[in-house]
Amino acid sequence: MEGDTPPIQKQGRHLNAYGIPVAPSKRRSSVEGGAATSTSGVVAPLIDLHQRIRVCVRKRPLSKKETMLGDTDVAPVVGARTIQVNAPKTRVDLTPFTEQHSFTFDDVFDSNSTNTDIYRRTALPLVEYMFSGGKATCFAYGQTGSGKTYTMLDPQHGLYVQAAYDIFAMLGQPQHTHLSAWVGFYEIYQGQLYDLLNQKKRLVPREDGNSNVVIAGLREFPIKDVDRLMEVFDFGSQARTTGRTGANNNSSRSHAVLQVLIKKKKDSSIHGKLSFIDLAGSERGADRGEANSKTRMEGAEINKSLLALKECIRALDQDKRHTPFRGSKLTQVLRDSFVGDSRTCMIATISPNNPNSEHTLNTLRYADRVKELKGESDPRLLAEQRQESMGGGLASTEKNNNLMMEDGLEFNERSSIANSDTMWEEDQAENLLDIDFPSQMSNNNALATPQAHHHHSVMDHDHQEDNHHHEDEDTLEGNPQRQHYLRRLSSPPDEVFTTPVEDPFQSTPTAITPHRHRERLSDEDAMLSLPPKFALTEQKQQHPSSTVQPPPQVTVKHIRDFIKLHRAQLKELDECIKLEKKMISKLSLNISSHHDFNEEDDPPDPEEYAKTVQLYEDYLNDLDDVHERKVACVETFGDRIKAELGEEEGEDTQQ
Ligand SMILES: Nc1ncnc2c1ncn2[C@@H]1O[C@H](COP(=O)(O)OP(=O)(O)OP(=O)(O)O)[C@@H](O)[C@H]1O
């Protein structure tokens, strides 16, 4: 496929992710950087697969149809971490030119990469993390038709199937015999949750007193092997909302969340959680084609939630104290998988053909905003490489994985990983989950459906929850009709599920207050954390502009830190304003270069006019992004000011 890439024209400009020209001398190619090239056999660098946030890109091959239409591949992978987009453009004098953009991510997978290659560097570390007692999320983001479902939920090779093989292999290990796997599958469509395993029953996300997200009414199933998981998954997939868009005849119009839980057999308390998310297509206006208003509304809702997701992960990557979870239902339900000691892996999927270059750029910019790596020489990447070359700092799991990859073992052979307990010792020491999840569970589902309880803060007040029932594991195991589970799945709940769930939180009063939780986070990040609640001395000062008590003790270091934060905030706003100025210049230059646009009597050249309108649309989309960035910045800083003044924080800040 790479051979199809058109040569970059001489007059082409090299731009960074945001379209700002980069001086040629500063460009780094994979060759310069010593990285492998994009052809088969590329070995991605041995980076830390256990970072809190990983952002990877997957490029799919050109489809037969695209090849027949003569489309070319304009997105060459130029290193294990860098991809370029050679966007075809036309100057105002109609001469064609190419805009070249470069992006660097934790991993870039070329079109010849298999789902297994991708699994090894994305979901496998999350599976292991889940067994260590953590919460993790793996999601695919990209334009409609770019391969999200193929990557995430393909019934043969999707990451979830590959993960399932490893999960069951690990459950078979002696140290895990006390654990069992459960699965739930739901979709988020137009801001509402629907259970894909229970006749699309409407679900309500709630939050318990310990900041755990509980999906009220979600039916979860104990899973014994991969076959059963696939059967359950197939059943749920058929219920998923799809539609036809201008870009894909079978487009996912909802976000699908496949939630795998590892529970302790003795009390069904949660040991670990891994969510696979196939996001709805990220198409923008032009893709909607002749779409009706329903499709447009779907598109607007999808865009809103994707924007919220981006801002949340970005806030986490930058260790911002304020994470705007309330921006959408998607981020509300993922909240507990993002806070605390969690792991997130995003796979941005792209279509490499020239007609999709603008969408590809949008996807890559989105991914770039989530985790802003500054080229292959980014200090974060170099630090990891240094660690590797010194032979230290890598989790033993990673070393094992890489050794195994070199050995060419299959992923299910890898599952018999030795010493997984010791591999995760360090993480277990830091694990917050023993506190996040109630430890004294009844025999029932921990996350799925607590009954109404005074510890819950309800996210969605619109709907009353239904009584939750769940399938008794022993009953199912001994059931001779097990192979007919599909029929039972579609039967009314009471036929199958006879054990009402007790409220797990009833017997476990709140173990930790949000306040205590916050204190723990503040240890992690002294700079952005709250000041130590001002409790160290008796000294009292009255702040002139506030009725609440100001900090009794403020150290010079504390003030310096605050000034630093203030400067950082101004810098961020300054960058936003610079970007906006560039955007304005680009658009106004285009308009003023067309004299006929100003002649009222003379209609402008329709082709040029259409290009300008397109430019205007791009400008608005970019403006929207920059505006969100400013809002996030101002809100975060506003929270910090409030905290300095000793005022109460908003709900979202209590992680
Ligand atoms: N890496 C790949 N190799 C081969 N075929 C692929 C690959 N990625 C995607 N495809 C094919 O491209 C088509 C579109 O992929 P898919 O349905 O996964 O896109 P999507 O991003 O999930 O779209 P939507 O958001 O509309 O649901 C499918 O026919 C799929 O089989």
From TrEMBL:
GO molecular function: ATP binding; hydrolase activity; microtubule binding; microtubule motor activity
Coiled-coil portions: none
Biased composition (Basic and acidic residues): 457-472
Keywords, in A-Z order: ATP-binding, Hydrolase, Microtubule, Motor protein, Nucleotide-binding
Start and end residues of each stretch annotated as Disordered: 1-37, 440-478, 491-520
Cellular compartments per GO CC: microtubule
GO BP, sorted A to Z: microtubule depolymerization; microtubule-based movement
Domain Kinesin motor: 52-373
Keyword Nucleotide-binding: yes
Residues binding ATP: G142, Q143, T144, G145, S146, G147, K148, T149
Pfam families, sorted: Kinesin
Endpoints of the signal sequence: none
Domain of life: Eukaryota
Family the entry assigns: Belongs to the TRAFAC class myosin-kinesin ATPase superfamily. Kinesin family. KIN-13 subfamily.
UniProt-recorded name of the protein: Kinesin-like protein
